[in-house]
């Protein structure tokens, strides 16, 4: 089963947008994500509907952030993507009348539900600002390492 990496990809895009002022075209974002501009427009449209980004047409136009990064969580972005399936695993349903299958599915259903609840809760705790702060810290560490390597 193919992994759905849209959440990771859109978070990547949003962090790039937060680091540099000015609009980003769908084509520029598509190149950064190695995908088609149509895919970017489809994803960004969902974010625009919820007020996280805005778009301007014409020369000099493109996508810009329209939200306070400290108020937008990873869960908000996940919902904007249409709440894709979090887990790739599922139940076997070839013999719904089988008591063994019913017992196994009941146990797995509860485990899957619990795992999704924990993941959604964690996504709700992390804001885009927190991701941006982590990125800036990593960039600072990299600069320090580079200066040390050059004897500074």
TrEMBL record:
SUPFAM superfamilies the UniProt entry points to: Winged helix' DNA-binding domain (SSF46785)
Gene3D superfamilies documented for this protein: Winged helix-like DNA-binding domain superfamily/Winged helix DNA-binding domain (1.10.10.10)
PANTHER family assigned to the protein according to its UniProt record, in alphabetical order: HTH-TYPE TRANSCRIPTIONAL REGULATOR YWGB-RELATED, WINGED HELIX-TURN-HELIX TRANSCRIPTIONAL REGULATOR, RRF2 FAMILY
Pfam families: Rrf2
InterPro entries: Tscrpt_reg_Rrf2, WH-like_DNA-bd_sf, WH_DNA-bd_sf
The protein's name: Transcriptional regulator
Gene Ontology terms for molecular function: DNA-binding transcription factor activity
Superkingdom in the source lineage: Bacteria
Organism: Bradyrhizobium forestalis
Record-linked PROSITE patterns: HTH_RRF2_2
One CC-aspect GO term: cytosol
């Amino acid at each position: 089963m193919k992994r759905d990496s849209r959440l990771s990809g859109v978070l990547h895009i949003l962090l790039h947008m937060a680091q540099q002022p000015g609009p980003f075209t769908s084509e520029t974002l598509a190149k950064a994500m190695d995908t088609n501009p149509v895919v970017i427009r489809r994803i960004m449209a969902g974010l625009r509907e919820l007020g996280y980004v805005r778009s301007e047409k014409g020369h000099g136009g493109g996508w810009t952030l329209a939200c306070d990064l400290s108020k937008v969580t990873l869960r908000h972005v996940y919902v904007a993507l249409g709440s894709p399936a979090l887990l790739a695993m599922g139940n076997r349903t070839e013999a719904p009348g089988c008591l063994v299958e019913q017992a196994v599915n009941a146990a797995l259903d509860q485990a899957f539900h619990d795992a999704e609840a924990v993941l959604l809760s964690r996504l709700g705790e992390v804001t885009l600002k927190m991701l941006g702060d982590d990125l800036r810290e990593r960039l600072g560490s990299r600069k320090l390492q580079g200066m040390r390597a050059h004897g500074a």
